[in-house]
Amino acid sequence: MRKLALMSVVAATLLLSGCTNQPFYTDNSGKVNQGDTITLGLSNEDFELAAETMINSLLSDPAFANQKPGVRKVVAIGRVVNDTALRLDTDKLTRKITQAMRRSGKFVLTSAVASGGALDSMSEDVRELRGNDEFNQKTIAKKGTLISPDFSLFGKIRQDNIRLSNGKTKVEYLFLLGLTDLNSGLVYWEDEKTINKAGSSDSVTW
Protein backbone atom coordinates (compact mmCIF):
# COMPACT_ATOMS: atom_id res chain seq x y z
CA MET A 1 0.00 0.00 0.00
CA ARG A 2 2.83 2.35 0.94
CA LYS A 3 4.59 1.50 -2.34
CA LEU A 4 1.44 2.32 -4.31
CA ALA A 5 1.08 5.65 -2.52
CA LEU A 6 4.72 6.50 -3.26
CA MET A 7 4.24 5.70 -6.93
CA SER A 8 1.18 7.96 -7.01
CA VAL A 9 3.18 10.84 -5.51
CA VAL A 10 5.95 10.36 -8.09
CA ALA A 11 3.45 10.25 -10.94
CA ALA A 12 1.75 13.41 -9.70
CA THR A 13 5.11 15.16 -9.41
CA LEU A 14 6.05 14.21 -12.96
CA LEU A 15 2.66 15.38 -14.23
CA LEU A 16 2.97 18.74 -12.52
CA SER A 17 6.52 19.08 -13.77
CA GLY A 18 5.35 18.37 -17.31
CA CYS A 19 2.65 21.04 -17.01
CA THR A 20 5.17 23.54 -15.70
CA ASN A 21 7.49 22.94 -18.64
CA GLN A 22 4.70 23.20 -21.23
CA PRO A 23 5.51 26.08 -23.61
CA PHE A 24 2.79 28.68 -24.16
CA TYR A 25 2.00 31.61 -26.41
CA THR A 26 2.59 34.94 -24.74
CA ASP A 27 2.12 38.65 -25.23
CA ASN A 28 4.85 41.26 -24.88
CA SER A 29 4.49 41.26 -21.10
CA GLY A 30 5.17 37.54 -20.85
CA LYS A 31 1.58 36.59 -19.93
CA VAL A 32 -0.34 33.77 -21.60
CA ASN A 33 -2.46 35.07 -24.49
CA GLN A 34 -3.30 32.05 -26.67
CA GLY A 35 -2.81 28.96 -24.53
CA ASP A 36 -0.28 26.17 -24.78
CA THR A 37 1.91 25.21 -27.72
CA ILE A 38 3.83 22.03 -28.37
CA THR A 39 7.18 23.69 -28.90
CA LEU A 40 9.15 26.89 -28.43
CA GLY A 41 10.14 26.45 -32.07
CA LEU A 42 7.85 27.22 -35.01
CA SER A 43 5.00 24.82 -35.72
CA ASN A 44 2.83 24.41 -38.82
CA GLU A 45 0.12 26.38 -37.03
CA ASP A 46 2.53 29.29 -36.63
CA PHE A 47 3.30 29.31 -40.35
CA GLU A 48 -0.43 29.12 -41.12
CA LEU A 49 -1.13 32.10 -38.85
CA ALA A 50 1.72 34.18 -40.29
CA ALA A 51 0.71 33.37 -43.86
CA GLU A 52 -2.97 34.20 -43.22
CA THR A 53 -2.05 37.52 -41.63
CA MET A 54 0.25 38.45 -44.50
CA ILE A 55 -2.10 37.54 -47.33
CA ASN A 56 -5.02 39.42 -45.73
CA SER A 57 -2.77 42.45 -45.36
CA LEU A 58 -1.55 42.21 -48.94
CA LEU A 59 -4.94 41.79 -50.60
CA SER A 60 -6.47 44.64 -48.57
CA ASP A 61 -3.60 47.04 -49.24
CA PRO A 62 -4.61 50.03 -51.43
CA ALA A 63 -1.82 49.17 -53.88
CA PHE A 64 -3.64 45.95 -54.88
CA ALA A 65 -7.16 46.10 -53.46
CA ASN A 66 -8.39 48.15 -56.43
CA GLN A 67 -6.44 46.29 -59.08
CA LYS A 68 -8.33 46.05 -62.37
CA PRO A 69 -10.23 42.75 -62.85
CA GLY A 70 -8.43 40.35 -65.15
CA VAL A 71 -5.03 41.98 -64.59
CA ARG A 72 -2.59 39.57 -62.96
CA LYS A 73 0.80 40.72 -61.74
CA VAL A 74 3.70 38.29 -62.23
CA VAL A 75 5.58 37.54 -59.02
CA ALA A 76 9.01 35.96 -58.58
CA ILE A 77 10.29 34.47 -55.32
CA GLY A 78 13.07 36.69 -54.01
CA ARG A 79 15.31 36.14 -51.02
CA VAL A 80 13.64 35.06 -47.77
CA VAL A 81 16.23 35.03 -44.97
CA ASN A 82 16.09 32.60 -42.06
CA ASP A 83 17.59 34.63 -39.22
CA THR A 84 16.71 32.12 -36.48
CA ALA A 85 18.44 29.29 -34.63
CA LEU A 86 16.06 26.86 -36.35
CA ARG A 87 16.60 24.88 -39.51
CA LEU A 88 13.62 26.31 -41.35
CA ASP A 89 12.34 25.63 -44.81
CA THR A 90 11.28 29.14 -45.80
CA ASP A 91 9.30 27.61 -48.66
CA LYS A 92 6.68 26.66 -46.04
CA LEU A 93 5.87 30.34 -45.68
CA THR A 94 6.39 31.58 -49.24
CA ARG A 95 4.39 28.73 -50.77
CA LYS A 96 1.37 29.44 -48.60
CA ILE A 97 1.61 33.11 -49.55
CA THR A 98 2.03 32.61 -53.30
CA GLN A 99 -0.74 29.99 -53.45
CA ALA A 100 -3.16 32.43 -51.84
CA MET A 101 -1.94 35.22 -54.13
CA ARG A 102 -2.61 33.09 -57.19
CA ARG A 103 -6.07 32.04 -55.99
CA SER A 104 -6.99 35.70 -55.51
CA GLY A 105 -6.85 36.16 -59.29
CA LYS A 106 -4.56 39.18 -58.93
CA PHE A 107 -1.19 37.46 -59.16
CA VAL A 108 0.57 34.65 -60.97
CA LEU A 109 3.90 33.07 -59.96
CA THR A 110 6.81 32.62 -62.36
CA SER A 111 9.02 29.56 -61.89
CA ALA A 112 11.51 30.69 -64.55
CA VAL A 113 13.08 33.39 -62.35
CA ALA A 114 13.83 33.24 -58.62
CA SER A 115 16.51 34.14 -56.12
CA GLY A 116 19.21 31.48 -56.30
CA GLY A 117 17.99 30.12 -59.63
CA ALA A 118 14.82 29.10 -61.42
CA LEU A 119 12.24 27.14 -59.43
CA ASP A 120 11.75 24.99 -62.52
CA SER A 121 14.67 24.78 -64.94
CA MET A 122 12.57 23.20 -67.70
CA SER A 123 11.74 26.63 -69.13
CA GLU A 124 15.40 26.92 -70.06
CA ASP A 125 15.97 23.23 -70.75
CA VAL A 126 13.37 23.01 -73.50
CA ARG A 127 14.94 26.00 -75.26
CA GLU A 128 18.19 24.07 -75.51
CA LEU A 129 16.40 21.73 -77.92
CA ARG A 130 16.52 24.37 -80.65
CA GLY A 131 18.40 22.98 -83.60
CA ASN A 132 18.03 19.37 -82.39
CA ASP A 133 16.82 17.40 -85.44
CA GLU A 134 15.13 14.82 -83.20
CA PHE A 135 12.47 17.36 -82.24
CA ASN A 136 9.86 19.11 -84.34
CA GLN A 137 11.19 22.66 -84.16
CA LYS A 138 7.70 24.08 -84.58
CA THR A 139 6.88 22.69 -81.10
CA ILE A 140 9.89 24.26 -79.37
CA ALA A 141 9.25 27.38 -77.28
CA LYS A 142 9.99 30.47 -79.34
CA LYS A 143 12.34 33.29 -78.44
CA GLY A 144 10.78 36.18 -76.56
CA THR A 145 7.95 34.15 -75.02
CA LEU A 146 9.07 34.09 -71.37
CA ILE A 147 7.32 36.66 -69.19
CA SER A 148 9.44 38.84 -66.91
CA PRO A 149 8.15 39.28 -63.33
CA ASP A 150 6.55 42.52 -62.20
CA PHE A 151 7.23 41.98 -58.49
CA SER A 152 9.60 40.11 -56.21
CA LEU A 153 8.47 38.63 -52.89
CA PHE A 154 11.17 39.11 -50.23
CA GLY A 155 11.30 38.62 -46.50
CA LYS A 156 12.93 37.52 -43.27
CA ILE A 157 12.11 35.36 -40.26
CA ARG A 158 13.94 36.65 -37.18
CA GLN A 159 14.27 35.19 -33.69
CA ASP A 160 15.02 36.95 -30.40
CA ASN A 161 15.40 35.11 -27.07
CA ILE A 162 14.59 37.02 -23.87
CA ARG A 163 15.12 35.80 -20.31
CA LEU A 164 12.06 36.56 -18.15
CA SER A 165 12.10 37.42 -14.43
CA ASN A 166 10.33 34.13 -13.61
CA GLY A 167 13.23 32.16 -15.08
CA LYS A 168 11.45 31.19 -18.28
CA THR A 169 12.61 32.02 -21.78
CA LYS A 170 10.53 34.16 -24.10
CA VAL A 171 11.11 33.62 -27.82
CA GLU A 172 9.97 36.28 -30.26
CA TYR A 173 9.58 35.33 -33.93
CA LEU A 174 9.19 38.18 -36.40
CA PHE A 175 7.85 37.37 -39.87
CA LEU A 176 8.56 40.17 -42.35
CA LEU A 177 7.44 40.07 -45.98
CA GLY A 178 7.28 42.60 -48.80
CA LEU A 179 6.73 43.07 -52.53
CA THR A 180 9.23 45.01 -54.64
CA ASP A 181 8.24 46.54 -57.96
CA LEU A 182 11.09 45.29 -60.17
CA ASN A 183 10.63 48.12 -62.67
CA SER A 184 11.14 50.92 -60.15
CA GLY A 185 12.74 49.12 -57.19
CA LEU A 186 10.04 50.55 -54.92
CA VAL A 187 8.44 48.46 -52.17
CA TYR A 188 4.70 48.51 -52.85
CA TRP A 189 3.72 46.45 -49.83
CA GLU A 190 5.29 45.11 -46.64
CA ASP A 191 4.02 43.90 -43.30
CA GLU A 192 5.11 41.93 -40.27
CA LYS A 193 3.66 39.40 -37.86
CA THR A 194 5.14 38.62 -34.44
CA ILE A 195 4.59 35.32 -32.65
CA ASN A 196 5.73 35.16 -29.03
CA LYS A 197 6.26 31.98 -27.02
CA ALA A 198 7.58 31.29 -23.54
CA GLY A 199 8.65 28.25 -21.56
CA SER A 200 11.48 26.67 -19.64
CA SER A 201 14.80 25.97 -21.32
CA ASP A 202 13.91 22.26 -21.09
CA SER A 203 11.20 22.78 -23.68
CA VAL A 204 13.56 24.25 -26.28
CA THR A 205 13.68 21.91 -29.28
CA TRP A 206 16.56 23.35 -31.35
Automatic annotation (TrEMBL):
Q: Indicate the secretion signal residues.
A: 1-22
Q: Which Pfam families match?
A: LpoB
Listed A to Z, the keywords are: Signal
Q: Which Gene3D superfamilies match?
A: ABC-type transport auxiliary lipoprotein component
Know the name of this protein? Penicillin-binding protein activator LpoB
Q: What is the organism lineage in this UniProt record?
A: Bacteria, Pseudomonadati, Campylobacterota, Epsilonproteobacteria, Campylobacterales
